[in-house]
Write a structure and sequence with these properties.
Layout: E1 5-8, E2 11-14, H1 15-29, H2 33-41, H3 44-56, E3 63-67, H4 73-82, E4 86-91, H5 94-106, E5 113-117, E6 130-136, H6 145-155, E7 156-167, H7 173-185, H8 187-195, H9 198-210, H10 214-224, E8 227-234, E9 239-245
Parallel strand pairs: 3-4, 3-6, 4-5, 6-7
Antiparallel strand pairs: 1-2, 7-9, 8-9
Helix pairs in contact: 2-8, 6-10, 8-9
This protein binds S-adenosylmethionine.
């Protein structure tokens, strides 16, 4: 019987290979990840993450699970906004967590954070254990995103909230063409110069084009069981925030 396949950028690969390739990629860029994020997006990813916090409105005492949390950006912002909160950063790539832990120590936030290696599709946490689940620029890399959403629903407490920040599709065709020119021509070159790795950033731009559009992804949230599901476009749809509640 032939194995199911999936996308790795514009390549088609057996499903069983994708997680290993994603891990290899983020493992190799981990130490340059933060600086590349600022360079590629001209710092705009920070504005998008602040918009995520504005909509999420973190509250004192909440327990966050930040999946595909990488170097911890979202968790840091969440804790700062909440005043006092706990966050677990879960990621499949250990070197990304190692970079994040260094940052947490430098920013004196280490006591509020836990770092756990784990897969979004099989989270190592019990049912009903978090108030908030976030995944930022992560779900696009997961082999079966619907399974990650199902897992998010499982680990959230009743009344808990999911928020996804991800690259999305620009509804305006002309703008999409301009953006494609930038992303396919410039970003891999920036990756080569800054991180010494054009291929990883070629994957990044290809994976963005493969990800479902806003409405399709909204349907996936609903399928996982989330209610009051909705989305907001950021920067004309270059990225989008999706929100849903476990009621
Ligand atoms: C682009 S980074 C995003 C990091 C961070 N959330 C941010 O917004 O800056 C994507 C992260 O997803 C992680 N990842 C990919 N597939 C995963 C999976 N199946 N389970 C958990 N983490 C995963 C990668 O290791 C990587 O750290």
């Amino acid at each position: 019987m032939s194995e199911d396949t999936t996308h790795f950028g514009f390549e088609t690969v057996p499903e069983s290979e994708k997680a290993g390739r994603v891990q290899g990629l983020f493992g190799s860029v981990a130490s340059k990840y933060d600086i590349m994020n600022d360079a590629m997006s001209f710092g705009i990813h920070r504005i998008w993450k602040e918009a995520m916090m504005d909509w999420l409105a973190p509250r004192r005492g909440q327990r966050l699970l930040d999946v595909a949390g990488g170097t911890g950006d979202v968790s840091f912002k969440f804790i700062e906004r909440a005043g006092e909160a706990e966050a677990v950063v879960c990621d499949i790539t250990e070197p990304m967590l190692v970079e994040g832990r260094k940052r947490a120590e430098a920013e004196k936030l280490a006591a509020s954070l836990d770092w756990v290696v784990g897969d979004a599709m099989a989270l190592p946490f019990p049912d009903n254990s978090f108030d908030v689940y976030t995944i930022s620029f992560g779900i696009r890399n997961v082999t079966r995103p619907q399974e990650a959403l199902n897992e998010a629903f499982r680990v959230l407490k009743p009344g808990g909230r999911l928020m996804v920040l991800e690259f999305s599709q620009i509804p305006n065709e002309l703008m999409q063409k301009v953006y494609d020119l930038y992303s396919f021509n410039i970003i891999p070159q920036m990756g080569r110069v800054i991180a010494g790795d054009a291929d990883s950033y070629q994957y990044l731009v290809e994976s963005i084009r493969n990800f479902p559009d806003q409405e399709t992804f909204l349907g996936m949230l609903r399928k996982a069981g989330f209610e009051n599901a909705s989305y907001r476009n950021l920067s004309m749809g270059i990225a989008a925030l999706h929100s849903g509640w476990k009621i």
